[in-house]
Amino acid sequence: MRTDPLRGSAELSSCGLHRYRLDRWWSNEPRALVCMRNPSTAGADRNDPTICRLRALLQDRPGIGGFTVVNADDRIATDPRELEALLAGQDVAALKAARHANLARIRTLSAAASVRIVAWGNLLAPGLHADRVIAALSLDGTHPLDAFALTADGAPIHPLARGHSRVPLGMPLVGWRADRPAPVPTDGEEV
After folding, report:
1. For residue 99, how many other CB atoms are within 10 A of its CB?
2. Cβ contacts of residue 2 below 8 Å, gap of 6+?
3. How many Å apart are CA 124 and CA 55, to the nearest integer?
4. Is residue 2 part of a domain?
């Protein structure tokens, strides 16, 4: 196990309600990009159980010197149900603009990532938004996506999965792909 010091940073909105990215690194080797469903309250200097588990899962992998966390939606919510309620109450135009900016950020970070890991469990419902997130992460299908492991339904397991779904340390990443092609977004489509 590496004992290099863990350094971190986070990019948050000025209001503190959105986390655009969170970074942890222990060396100058390339960082993995990890995409989950909703941001937690972890910040530049504050870890939570998910961030601690990500470090444990990634720190001894050759060629990975850290990770960048992004989320399908950037609104901070510790419970996915809370996130859904917040998104449902948001102005449609504002939600569309926020998601567009988030997808652009994911695409830019994905282009620089050494590996792209999806880890949202069953929390990202299939549909147009999920398809757009997958397209941004995979750079329109030109780069592979990996997962720590898969659920029985083929969803990418979240780092904090428990019980028989818990990912053992040192387990190799598995390839993951959506079972449908990502659509090209057009104006007037749902958010």
Report:
1. 19
2. 26, 27, 59, 60
3. 23
4. no
